[in-house]
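Exercise: predict the fold of this chain.
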Amino acid sequence: RVLNVDSAKSVQLTNVEATRKQAVIANGFIYWIEERGPDQLVNAPLPDLQPVFDNNNMVSLTAGLLGFHTDAYSVLRKWNEEAGVVSVSRYSQLLPQPVIETAALSSGTPTGPNFALQEGGFLWVEFDKAQVLDLGIGACAEVDLISGVNVVSFSCFPDDYSAYQLLAELGTDTVNAVRVLDAKAGLMVQRLAFRS
């Protein structure tokens, strides 16, 4: 199970009946000792699980998704039917202050702005209850950054990787700052910047 310490809510990850102990997560794998006669050390790739606790869940808008849905109402209806999604939001502006638009269901009918979905953008998704969405094993492909402000969600950073390392590796001649967005508050809560 995954336990969210802040909310004290947990989500079950597997239904397999086996005696497993001393589980640890490292470098995209989960390792545990399993009792199969003599104890065995077992590992498996950790799926990109999306535990839904406080409904701060970001979903990237890919070309494949936009092949089926082009606007907020369309994706909201489908995701509500399939997974209990009750609202989708987007940040239409991040600077100088974040501006958020939300399409939500009211008595089964979408309300709010029916904004167009754009490839490379992202949606904040709210569910009707805590659950887990298994989005499959994540591929650690490269992320292409464009000139200007980039919003990136990336699950393939190595363990203990810091924002300072990211800034150093991207280079002081190409990056001005890295910010962390607090989705619940709608505020940039941390900013690391190079100063010349």
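Check your answer against the key: The radius of gyration is 19 Å.
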